[in-house]
Amino acid sequence: QRVVLMDPSEGPDDILRANRSREKTFVFDMVFDHRATQEEVYVSTTKSLIGGVISGYNATIFAYGPTGAGKTYTMLGTDCEPGIYIRTLDDLFKALEAATEEMDYTVSMSYLEIYNEVIRDLLNPSSGFLDVREDPRGSIHIVGITEVSTTNAQEITQLLMKGNKQRAQEPTAANKVSSRSHAVLQVTVTQKSRRKAIGEEVRIGKLFMVDLAGSERAAQTQNQGKRMKEGAHINCSLLALGNCINALSEKGGSRAQFVNFRDSKLTRLLKDSLGGNSRTVMIAHISPASTSFEESRVTLIYACRAKNIKTQVK
Length: 314
Hints:
Number of domains: 1
Pfam families: Kinesin
InterPro entries: Kinesin-like_fam (IPR027640), Kinesin_motor_CS (IPR019821), Kinesin_motor_dom (IPR001752), Kinesin_motor_dom_sf (IPR036961), P-loop_NTPase (IPR027417)
Order of helices and strands: EEHHEHHEEEEEEHEEEEHHHHEH
Protein name: Kinesin-like protein
Structural class: alpha+beta
Shape: globular
Number of helices: 10
Strand content: 15-25%
GO molecular function: ATP binding; microtubule binding; microtubule motor activity
Oligomer: single chain
Distance between the termini: 28 Å
Subcellular location: Cytoplasm, Cytoskeleton
C-alpha cells in the first residue's frame, strides 16, 4: 500500500543536501506495480462499486496522471486486454440479469469529451458543441447528448471503440497518441419494481467513468502553437479539479471552504461525483522514468489529497 518516491537528481557527494533527502512515502488503499494485470486493477478498484450502482447509489472512477502514463489503457484497454469501461459494463449486465425477476431495469449510456473547454458527443460527433444546463433540482444535464439504451456488452464495446476513435488525439514529444481531451462515459441504471405498489419507487444509479487528459509540461511535450493552447486548456481544467479536491479535503476543518465547481466544464459535470452523493475511486498513474520525477510527485500529492475527501453517501 506504499509508494516510495526517490529523487533521481540526488548526488551522493552533494554537500549542501547531505542531510536533506527528498525521498517521499505515500500511503494509498492499493498500489500496483508494473506486473499488475488489467483484471487485478479492475477487481481491487471498481468491482465493488457495481452493486451500489444497481441499488441506486452513484459511483465515479477517475484515471489521473501525467501524459503517457497509461490512463487510456487502464480505462479502455485493448481488444485482448479490455480495460475498466468494458469489464464494468460486463459485470453490470450480468448482475442485472441475475436480478431481473422482481425489477425492471433500463440502462442508458452517453460518451462525451471535453476538448478545449467545449463538450463534444463522441457517439454522434456531427452534433457540434453541446451546452451544460442545471435543472431546478440541481442535477446537471447536457442538452442534446446521444443516449444509447442497450443491455448488450458487445454492442457497447463497439460503440466505445468507435467513440474513442473520434477523440482528439495528437502526437506530442512525450506520447505519440496523447489524448487531448477528457472523456466521460456516463451509465445510468433506472429500476422500477415489477410489483404494482401504491407508491411506485424508482431508483436511479449513475456511474461515471472519466479518462482525464494527461497533465503536461510544455518543456517535456515540446508543444508549440495549437498543441500548446490545448495543453493550457487541459492544465486549466485539471487545476480547477485540483482546487475542488483541495477545498473538499479541507472541509470540516477550522474554516469553511468554498468549493468552486464552476471554474471549468469538467468540474461542473463531476460536481455530484466529487463532493456529493457518490462513491469515488481515483486511479493515479505515474511513470517510472526518472525524467518525470516532478510529474510523479505532483500526481501522488494530488491523489493523496483526493483520498482525504469524506462524503456521506445517502
